[in-house]
Structure formats: structure tokens, C-alpha cells
Amino acid sequence: MSDATLLGQVKDFANRANPYPVYARLRQNPVSCQDDGTPEGTWVAATHGTIASLLQDPRVSSETLPPADRPRTGNPLTDLIVKPLKDWMMDRHRVFIFRDPPDHDALRSAVMHQFSRERVQAMRARSDRLVADLLDEKCGAREIDAVDDLAYPLPVTVICELFGVPREDEPKFHGWATQLATALEPDSLSDPEIRAANSRTFDAIGGYMADLIKDKRRHPQDDMLSGLANHATPAGVKMGDYDLIATAILMLVAGHETTVNLITNGLLTLLRHPAELERLRRDPLRAPRLIEELLRYEPPVQFRTRRTLSAIDIAGVTIPEGADLVLLLASGNRDETVFPDPDRFDPDRSGIRHLGFGGGLHYCVGAPLARFEAEAALTALAARLKAPRLIEDPPPYRSGAALRGPKHLRIAIDGIA
Amino acid sequence: MAPVFERAVVVGAGLAALRGAEAMREAGFAGPLTIVGAEPCRPYDRPPLSKHVLAGTVPAEATTLPSALGPDVDWRLGSPAVSLDRVGRTVRLADGRTLPYDRLLIATGTRARPWPNPHEGRLAGVFTLRGRDDAAALRRALAARPKRVLVIGGGFIGCEVASLCRQLGLPVTLVEPGPTPLARVLGRTVGAFIGAIHAGHGVEMRCGAEVEWLEDADGRLVRAHLVDGTRIDADVAVVALGAVRNTEWLDGSGLSSDPGGIDCDGAGYVLDADGRPDRHIAAAGDVARFPHPLYDDRRVVLEHWSQAVAQGIHAGRLLVGATPERPYGELPTFWSTQGKLVVKSAGLTEGADAVAITQGDPAAGRFVALYGREGRCIAAVAVDSARWLPAHADLVAARAPFPPGGTATDRPKGVAVFEPGFA
User: Fold this and answer.
1) Cβ of B409 and A100 within 8 Å?
2) Where are the beta strands (DSSP E) in A3-106?
3) Is there a domain that residue A77 lies in?
4) Which residue range is the domain that position A354 belongs to?
5) Structural class in CATH, domain B340-418
6) Are B408 and A58 within 8 A, CB to CB?
7) What is the ipTM for the molecules in this complex?
8) How far is CA A305 from CA A45, A60, A154, B387, in A?
9) Measured between CB atoms, which of A53, A309, A360 is closest to B407?
10) pLDDT, tens digit, for every residue of B303-341?
11) Would you identify the CATH topology of the domain B115-241?
12) Under a CB-based contact definition with an 8 Å cutoff, are residues B56 and B144 in contact?
């Protein structure tokens, strides 16, 4: 009989710095039903094979968010008309990571169309410049916080510039993004307080986006939001306003809450493996290989949730219809049957089939951005930080179990070259 | 283990032959290895010929397959094998030379079925498409912007060529004697869905029609005459009538071979006329007819790229003693890129008594068709829905009940079951 408390241990903040031993125990049963406080439980897939298979399975749905339900206000007009209408609109225009085909496909393809080669390459060059500027600002310092000084501002600036969000408005997004990112944590599906806060935040950021989109229509710029607002894709897809707002929010939040963890987890891992840091310093061309191993070893998104539309027989068990699923990507990445010596950080391993960007039709849209931002940041840090030392190990972590990463990463240095 | 024989010969120099030869070496066979090819070039990849090469994005010569073989291989290219002596264990080549063997891999593949009238087939502007030279010649003809291209035959190659012509902006007519394109392999129901997609892209479809003769002016094609009297002006015709298996050279060898293929046992060894395996010889790829364990040991020949790879490797290892002699039986898979449309399949549709659209919508140009026989899933075809194929391939490999129950993303409400429409 398997231990049904393991998912609880994954969520437990006490295990945030090192959840991997819990994942290893979960892998003893490739798919198991875990306690989540409900009679049905949550089904967890923990091995590489079962996760990869479920990511591809048409019986697995991404429409995991419960129906929107704003708190009542006591004002009859609001409660009886405005609230149901807003809830209805929100349900029909979810961000596309929470939607299934065919709707998902049209929205995703419109975004992919805006991620043109030219735009991505220009932003790649731009991110090298941004990293250089951010480090220049700290040049006399003897201590840096890798999160606040680089890992957070870099991706935020990149996504704001790509979408044409004025940089001065960014502080508003900080809190919104942190709140909305909780939608990826399993408890957000059931906790009424989190859901209410998410609804309010969605309204606030949605109001901002609606205004920005109007502005992009009046004064189109060379940015992705202008492109989405004003042009159809070659396949004829043009988003309606509500989908456009939701999509813009998704991209902005994703830009705020994921790559920061890749960069910070990456630097933390390098500081724990000084020989690898030194090798990267000597040979920046090792960066792509190193980053793929990081996406395996410490992925920024540790797991994603799904729901079954039909019963699924897999790995000797039957997941019932309508079950909540957790696909434990970070555990699949440590699957010893796929990755020999999985707990060893080894950028030289061959054929890294990691699940760091998920898989199947929801495979990370921003993967190229994440890769080049991490490459820019880690190669510059390796080259320019003089004698970096971790001040706290483990560092303090952010609360999320799914979007997992240090809240701060304080590093003592002898200077910045 | 040390192989107990000396000389290996591979007859054929395509994908299955190359992968088979590589597998022999990888399994530790270090003896003399000779590869015999009818064409004068090293093995090349065929799928790009009807796509990138015709589109002009990849030159025909750039399709040479990467190879793990070292310099210790004796390539005999440009001279096909003409006979096999199993008693003396020799292969004779067209140039008169004789090659002794201890182990022989037969992977002679197929050639394009020619236009039945040889004179018309030789007209300038009339092409078949099988080899690298064919593709290069047809590319030159398409690059000269013909006024209209006539495609004769609505199988996979015919559909690929016709849709590619539309991508190049060329007027194209596809003539297919059957009721829909792809009807023989996919059935009329799915064939009609795919035909409608191509028609929507501007391919002029003439199904249920047959070309009677090709008219020329001074040796150049000018028009085709259909049996019903219709005339189609065209300066390029592509004859896409399927393939003929290269087995004639085995006549008189005592092996059980005919134009339908060379019979093999479940292990992969060829069978003689009395049904006894010859353990010195294996066959792989487009010529091998073998009992498929997933299909009740029905004897099948599979002209699929993935089959050439898997069976080539299997046969190569078998011959050098590296594989236990267990039945060969990968799930058959293939793909076809028809313009922007990608058709992928798993399993074999033959014998299907029902077909269900389990995902997507044919009217939207993307769907998955699941084929059933006697209440079991036997094949799946994904049209612009390749991402759903692995899950459906699992159903086919498991012979899951047909039609599938339950709901799935992008599944039509109440999965309808159709007559598949095989002849």
C-alpha cells in the first residue's frame, strides 16, 4: 500500500528547499491516489513514462479551474446581474493554459504567430544588453540578491518590451502576477479565499489590459500586443477582446513567475557545483547544454494539474473519470529508469528528454525566451561575479510548490568585473 | 559473441539495407561486408523527394542518408543483382561478377509502376517518382511553370505531388479511378474527407475517372484523354500508380517470392518454395512479406519508412546472431505530407468494418479517424492532428474495444461510426 500523504508533503512548505526525496518515494508507484482532503483524492503521476503519456492523452483535460464565482457584495444589481455576467465571461475566456482544443489551438497559434523569428532574435540580443546593464548597476557592491537584482527584472523587462507594456507600469504587475500565479497551485482550485482574490486581481489587471489594448488599436506599435489586437494570423485567427485580455495576462504573468526561477535555481545549482560554474566561465558555449540539464534538475515549474474526462488505465491502475491529476514533471525528470544517477547535476549527460517545459499541446510557448534569458544571465554571472559565495544555503523560498524557486538568493562577492 | 561466418552481402542500397548493414556492424560483425545497389549512388532518403525536393527547397543530391558505416564496406553500386544461387551461396550481378556470401540480406525494395503504354510513358513531360533522378527531373519540369500538371493516381504519392503543385501555385488535375483519393488504404469515407481538403486548396479532383491515352506533339505531352472522352490539356503528367516489388532476380532461386514480395517467417528468415526457412538469408523493407503478430499473423508487406528502419535493423541483427529469433512485429506507422496537410497513421486499416471520427472535425480540416474490426481498434489515422496519434496508437496496439467509450478533448459529441468504404 502506498503512502497517500506524499502529495501533502510536496505542498508542505517545510519541503520546499528539497522536495526531491518526497518525489522519489512517490515514484515507487508510478501513478497513485493521494489524500487532498476530498473523498476522491488527487491522482499523481510521478514517473517519466506516465507523465509523458498523460500529457499526450486526449482524455486528459486542462480545464481544471472550477467555474468562476466572485464573492457576493450585498448589492443586488452587482450580485444578480454584474457578477453572473462577469463569471460567465471569465469561464468562456480562460487563459489558454486552462483550455482544451479546439479553442486552445486557435489562441495558441495566434500567439505563436507573434513570436516571429526576427522578434525572438532581436530580444535575444536585447537581453544580453539588459543583463550587462543590471550588473553594471551593482558594480561596487559586495553583496547582491540574485533575485531582485537580476533574475526578476530581466524576464519582466523582456516580456514587457515584447508585449509593449510601458516599463513604468511594471510595479503594478508585480503584485498581480504573484497573486495570479497561485492558480497553478493545487489548493487554489478549492480554496475560496484564493479564488476570490484571483477574481479580484483578474478584474484589476483585466481593466488595465483593456485600456492598453484600446491604446494599441489607436496607436499600433511593433509589439506582440499590437500584433494580436490588430492582425489576424494567416489561418484567419483574430482574438476577440476577452480572449485577448486573458492571453495578454497569461503571457505577462508567465513572464513574471517562471524564468525568474530558472535563473535563480540555475545560479544556486552552479554555486553548489563550483567546478561547473568555473567551466561555464571558461567556456560560455557550455551554456545551452547546462541549461537543458537545469531544466531537468531544477525545473521552474515542478508540476501541472489536469483532469480526466474518461477513466484511464495506466501503469496497472485505473484513474477514474473526472479525477484531479497532478503531473509531477520535476519527479519525472529524476526518474532513474530514464536518467542514470538522476540526482547528480551533470550537464554532459546525453539525450536529456526532460519535462521542464511540459509536453504535448501545452508545451511551454515561452521556451525560447526562457532559454536565452537564462543563457544571458548565467553566462554573465559566471563571467563577472568575483569569488561568489552563497550567504544562506538553502536560501529562503517563495511559497509556491508548483512554481518553485528562491525568494531571495543573497551572494557575497569580491566585486563585479 | 563471435560470429561464426565470414562474408555478409546486402542486396539493395536503400534505407532498410543501410540500417541492416549498420546493425550487423554494431552487433560486432567485423568480416567482409558488401552492399550491392542498382543505382550508382549511396543510400538516400526518399520521403523528401516528393516534398522538399519537388518544392525546390532541398536539392535531390542532398538527400543522402547519414551513415554509421566505416570505410570497411565494399560498395558495389550501379550494377543490380540478377540472380541468386542458394546452393553455391552466390549472388550474380548484372556486370557478370559473382559475390559469395555466408549471410545475405535482401532489401531490393520497389520501383515505380510504369505507365502501361511504354511509348506514352517515354514522352517528354511524363514522369514517375521513385528515385532521386526522378525527383530531380520532375523538379526541373515544375520549376519551368507548366500550364497544368496532371497527376495520374490518387494514392499517397499522387496526393503529395498534387498538393505540392498547389503550393507552387501550379494548376493541377488529379485523376483517380476510385471513388475518392486514398480509397484503397484509408477507405472511401476518410478518402472523401481528405479529397475535400485538397479540392479546397484548388486541386481539381477527377475521381471515378481514368486516363485512356496520352497525346503528344513532337514527342512532348500535350493532353490526356479520359475514358469518358474528356480531354485535359497538360504539359506535365506524373504517373503515380503505385510500386512494383523488385523480386524478379530471385526467380529460379527456389525462394517463395512473387511480384507481391518475398515470404519470410516470423523471425525474418526467407522461406523456400516448401515453406522452410533459409537461415542464411533474411529480407527487410518493401519486399519482405511476413506474418504480423499484431494482425493474427496475416502476411503483410509494408512500404513504410519506419518499417524499413525497424525491420532492417532486426534483419541485420538476426543474420549476425545478435537477436533472439522472436517474431518481428512493430506497430506499423507511416506519414504523408500533402501540402500543408500532415497525415499520420498507426496500424493497418485492411479488413476494417467501421471507422469513427474520435477527435476534431473533418470540415475543419483536422481529425483523427479510428478504424475498427469486429469491435476492436485496428488502425488510427490522424489528419493534421499528429499529436493525438500516440494515444490512439496505444489503443491499436492494445486492440482496445471499438468504438472507444468516454469523452476526450475535441471529441465530437456522440462519436459517430461510419462505414469505412473499402471496396
Assistant:
1) yes
2) 31-34, 42-45, 60-61
3) no
4) 6-66+82-92+101-412
5) alpha beta
6) yes
7) 0.78
8) 10, 10, 28, 19
9) A309
10) 999 999 999 999 999 999 987 667 788 899 999 999 989
11) FAD/NAD(P)-binding domain (3.50.50)
12) no
